């Protein structure tokens, strides 16, 4: 079949590479326009675009794939199927009617759970112990199409969203090629999703990274894992001897259930004034911070941080502005 690949994020790269390596006919890569990135805001091509250029596949980067001129560009190639993964735009009904067999999408969850832009992050945030990938037949409704194939995997207890995404991308690539083969010979039929079991995974915002110490310790650690590599989990250390709070990005943490919580301990307070271990009270137990990065500085261990920032009983962790007692 004549395929058009549509993808932008790194999650799409293993699928695209597999199609090229296994001899599928890919006539075009549709990807988002290059965006400014980094401190100097330089236009940087996505990894999938670089792969297309390297392998001689034509690249199309429209601001809107649903614009009439964009649809005309796709239609001119007379595609049989759109193959979509982490593209970043909603496909219109007009576009989906261009290919003879419509489109298939690789989604990073076990649908109908976690429909939306950030399924991996929200699965970890909500404490899921397993997840997977699903290949669906595309419809104009986001992630609501019939399920063609799926594969499940366990979520590691310390796995971040970025680490899990890498694994899911590799898990999904052969699943997509299997779906394409089965659609080509007519041996695959989709099954409708159970809408009553659908859950949402909305796009992340920067404020989702702010750690809420009033949640249980396990939930705090899930949030820390879920918000990496973006927007990154963070908190502020408020010290009695400094006017401005210190912004800390938290990279690794674990709940500490063995530490007894005093009745007067409040969320965000230091759980132990130790020179080598950095522990903070959550709602029910302590969280030990192992790896962190103060604003404007390098990543460091908790022990390194405490050498220059020993804690006192009045120090607190929380948002940049703490609520006044009472």
Structural overview:
Helix content is 24%, strand content 26%. Strand 1 (2-7), helix 1 (13-21) and strand 2 (25-30) form a beta-alpha-beta unit. The longest helix has 25 residues, at 161-185. It has eight helices and 16 strands. It is elongated. The termini are far apart. By secondary structure, the protein is α+β, with helices and mostly antiparallel strands. It has two domains: 2-197, Rossmann fold, CATH 3.40.50.170; 206-318, Roll (Methionyl-tRNA Fmet Formyltransferase, Chain A, domain 2), CATH 3.10.25.10.
- Find the CATH topology of the largest domain: Rossmann fold
Give start-end ranges of low-pLDDT stretches.
none
**Number of helices, counting only DSSP H or I runs of 4 residues or more:** 8
Percent helix, as a range, is 10-25%
Please tell me what the overall shape is. Answer: elongated
- Residue fraction in strands: 25-35%
Order of strands, widest sheet = 5-2-1-6-7-8-9
- Helix and strand composition category: alpha+beta
For the record, what CATH class of the largest domain applies? Alpha Beta
What composes the largest sheet? 7 strands, mixed
Keywords:
24% helix; 26% strand; alpha+beta; 326 residues; Rossmann fold; seven-stranded mixed beta sheet; single chain; Methionyl-tRNA Fmet Formyltransferase, Chain A, domain 2
